Amino acid sequence: MIAGAAPLFGAVISMVWLAWSDEQHLGAGTRIWRMLTHPIGAIAVIQSLYTALLALLWMRYRVFKAPEGAEWPKVTVVIPAFNEGPMVGRSIRSVAACAYPKDKLEVIVVDDGSRDDTFFHMQHLRREFPDLVRLVRFVGNRGKRSALVAGFRAASGEIVLTIDSDSEINPNTVHEMVAPFLADKKIGAVAGRVAVLNRDTPISRMLEVQFTLAFDYGRAAQSAYRCVACCPGALSSFRKDIILPYMDEWENQRFLGRPVNHGEDQALTNIVLRQGYDTVYQRTAIVHTLVPTNYRQLSRMFLRWDRSYIVEGFSFAKFMFTRYRENNRLMPIVTFFVSNLRFVLVAVAIMELPRMFDTNVTSFVRATVALGLGAIFSAAYYLRFERSFRWVYGVLYAIFSVVMLQWILPWALVTVRDERWGTR
Asked: From the CB of residue 419, how many other CB atoms can be counted at a distance below 10 Å?
C-alpha cells in the first residue's frame, strides 16, 4: 500500500520543501518547529519514520526454501477466464511447461460465460494436455469470484494456486509457490511476484517500474512480519483446507448492502489472516501479466484497486485488534493506520497542485525537481532488478501520478458501492 503511494509521498515532501523554501526569512529552528506542528509536516515525519522501518523489514526478508527431501503435495492451478481470447491459451501453456511433477499437478480453467473465442482456445489446450487440463464453463457471466469458487471446489490438490488468464508463469514458479507451505505449517497463503508482460507503451513501462516497487519492496517488508495484506489474483497460492469452509461467505460478500464483485484477492487474504495463519511473499515465484496500455484502462484498474482497498480495509479493521494470531499483531495495525494517511495526502495534493505549478517559473522548477527527487527511490530500486534505461519511467510516473491520478481515490470513496468490475 505505502510502497505504491511512494510518488505521492514524494509529492508531499516536495510541498514541505517548498514551504521551507518560501520561509527563508525565518530562522531554521522556527521553520522546523512550524513544519513539525503543521499537519502535513507531522504526516511527512510519520511517513519518513515508517519508510525507514519498512527498509529495515525489507532487509530482513528471505526467500522460503523447501526442506531437504520434502514430499511435494498435489497442486491445483485455477485459471478464471472471461473474454480473454488466445491469451488464455498462453496462460495454460505456461503452466503445462512448468517443472512441477505432472502427476501432482492439475489445471482447472473456468470460462466465466465468455462471448468471444475464449472457450475455443481452452478446448484446444484441453485436447493438447488431456491428462492435465480440466474445463468448467458457465452459461452466463457470473463474475470472477464465482469462477474461482468453482475452481476451488473442483480442486483435488492440497494447494490451490490461482493465476489470471492474461498472465504467464516462469517454469519454476509452481515449485516456488509451494515451498513456503513446506517450510512452515503456519503459512496459509503465498503471494508471488508480479512482473509486466507488455512493455510497449509509456504507461505500461511506467507500471513496470512501479510494480517492482509496490509488488516487491512493499510485500517483502510485510512478509518479514508474516502479514502480506493482499495476495494478488495474478499469482497466489493457498492451503485448500483452510479456504473451503469460507467459500459461501467469500462468494456472497456484501458491503453497505451491496454485493462485492471486486477485490476478491484481498478478501481471500483477509479470510486467511482472520484464521490466524500467516501470509508471506515469495520473490522467486514470478508471473508476467498484461497491464493497461492507455490512461482509460489505467484509471479503471486503479479505481478497482482503491475500491477494494476501502472495502477490505473495513474488513481487516473488524479483527485487527483481536487475538487473531499469536505474534506480530502490532505491525499490521501500524501499517493500516499509516496507509490510511493516504486519504489526507491525496486531499493535500489536490489542494496544493495549483501552487506547485503556478505561473512562477521558479516554483515550477523547484516542484518538478522535488518530484523527481521523490521518484529516485523507485527508479533505483527498479535498477536493482533490471539494468535498463527504463528506470527513467519511474521518474515520469512520479509526476504523472501526482498530476493525473489523484482524483481516483476520492472517486473510489464516493463510488465504493459500485460493484462493476470495470475491466472490459
From this structure: 15
CB 119 within 8 A of CB 136: no
Give residue 265's domain range.
1-64+184-424
Do the strands 254-255 and 258-259 form a parallel or antiparallel pair, or are they unpaired? antiparallel
Would you call 424 exposed, middle or buried from its count of C-beta atoms within 10 A (0-12, 13-18, 19+)? exposed
> What is the gyration radius of the CA atoms in the chain, in angstroms?
22
pLDDT score, position 4: 45
- Residue 160 in any domain: the answer is no
For the residues 311-317, what does the mean pLDDT come to? 95
Q: What is the tally of structural domains in the chain?
A: 1
DSSP string, 327-366: S--HHHHHHHHHHTTHHHHHHHHHHHHHHHTSS-HHHHHH
CB contact at 8 A, 45 and 36: yes
Mean pLDDT of 201-224: 91
Residues near 60 by Cβ (< 8 Å), separated by ≥ 6? 224
Nearest in space to 301 (alpha carbons), one of 202, 423, 164:
423
- Give CA torsion, residues 161, 167, 172, 175, to 10 deg: 0
Q: Smallest Cα–Cα separation from 89: which of 170, 198, 148, 166?
A: 166
Task: Write out pLDDT tens, residues 333-346.
Answer: 999 999 888 887 77
Structure-model confidence comparison of residues 178 and 384, the more confident one? 178
Residue 330 CB contacts under 8 Å (≥ 6 apart), including other chains: none
**Set of cell numbers at residue 303:** 479505481
% helix / strand / coil in the chain, to the nearest 5? Answer: 55, 15, 30
pTM tops 0.70, yes or no: yes
